[in-house]
Design a protein that fits this description.
The complex is a heterodimer of chains A (about 375) and B (about 80). Chain A has about 375 residues and is of the alpha/beta class. Chain A has a domain at about 5-120 and about 210-230: Thiolase/Chalcone synthase (Peroxisomal Thiolase, Chain A, domain 1). Chain A is about 35% helix and about 20% strand. Chain A has helices at about 20-35, 55, 65-70, 85-100, 120-130, 145-160, 160-175, 190-195, 225-230, 260-270, 290-300, 305-310, 330, 335-355, and strands at about 5-10, 45-50, 80, 105-115, 200, 205, 215-220, 235-245, 280-285, 365-375, 380-385. In chain A, the strands form two sheets. Chain A has a nine-stranded mixed beta sheet with strand order 3-2-4-7-1-8-11-10-9, sandwiched between helices. A two-stranded antiparallel ribbon of chain A has the order 5-6. Chain B is mainly beta and about 80 residues long. In chain B, about 0% of the residues lie in helices and about 50% in strands. In chain B, a hairpin with a 2-residue loop joins strand 2 (about 25-35) and strand 3 (about 35-45). Chain B is globular. The chains are: A alpha/beta (about 375), B mainly beta (about 80). The interface of A and B includes residues 120, 144, 149 and 153 of A.
Chain lengths: ~375, ~80
Amino acid sequence: MRSVSVIGIGETRMGRFPERSLRDLIREAGETALNDAGIESNEIQALFMSNFNAQFLNGQGHIGPLAAEVLGLGTIPAIRVEGACASGSLAFRQGLIAVASGLYDMVLVGGVEKMAHLSTESVTEGIASASDFAQEANQGATFPALFAMIANRYFHEYGNVREAMAICAVQNHENALLNPDAQLRKRITVEQVKNGLAIADPLTIYDCSLVSDGSAFVVLAATEVARTVCHKRLVEVVGSGHAGDTLTLASKGSLTTFAATINAAKQAYAMAGVGPTDIHFAEVHDCFTITQLINIEDLGFFPKGKGAFGVADGKTAASGPIPINVSGGLKAKGHPIGATGLSQIYEVVTQLRGEGGARQLPRADLGLTHNIGGTAATCVVNIFRGR
Amino acid sequence: MSRRGTLFTYSVVHSGMDAFKVQTPYVVALVEEDRQIRLARVEGYTGRQELAVGMEVEFMAEDQEGHPIYRFSACPD
């Protein structure tokens, strides 16, 4: 397998953009990534396009050719990749494998979702198809309800971590204040999170990630090729892992540790030849606050059941030893589902290049992204090193 | 003798899809019965029950697709 590097990144602002089309979002993020890489569109040999559910949300399928047309990529192969909320990282991994195998030297990976124009009930129904629709959604188990059940089970096994969950939301909002691409840039308090509008107990509206429109793109190249075209700090993909688990919550071996994360992380760490303590910072899937707590434990940043103490001690804050979601995360930067995994990669590459502006971390040579789909039925973990 | 299960975990849902909107707040749970864990609706939530993992619930029926429905035991009020 060949070494692969990221040579270009681009994203839109995340937010509610009723006036913007899928095409419009794709154009902005895709062209930004190509310009950032300093290459022409005819140098791209394949397009891997992530989208979760435009068929339901926008009546649009066949996103691969749609994006290829918008970006003027001609007749190159274009494919859509779907893995619920992990779609973006999953598409990234397919692009990575395609370049690493030697099949292509340079590919484009993109993601897009447009969902904020629909009512909360419709969005809830659209997202519900990432769970088992017949056995879960149709029984009234919405996505927040599934993760609320995970939270209540976690409380039973490890103690009540309500306060630390709230701190995750507060920290992510704090980080988003410095990110111009973030959807919500406002400070919130622990009390606001705990006393917010009840969605599915114990989760309030402030425990839930955002409903967002947005797009993000990444250009990947074989490192040997990247060295000849890339004028910025080269960001090598040094580790990547992908694992799965049962679709339904009731069939999982554990609700409080995600087997897909454990296995994807194990693969990524082994490939990179590093461990959790080597990682400088991470973008970690925070669809709900409880998810972020479980994930930082499963990734090995904290022992099982101790993540809450780490969060409460400020260890995951931007100023802490292992900053988590310095972008603002899904909670405050936004969660345009198909674009989310790529938006996480956008942040890690930005930090590794030292282009984070007001939110630039002082120590940023080795970064990790973690992205799950459904109730962690799909997980992709990637590790990036600045060269 | 009635069939009983226990709550493996649960949530009171306040915001649902259109189809369930009128029923909020309602309870969904993973109910353990005979060492098997299944997702189920638990009927009879009044807002006064103190829910907890391990709490007993009574099997009520299976719906048309075979999904189990449980109910909270009648509370003294």
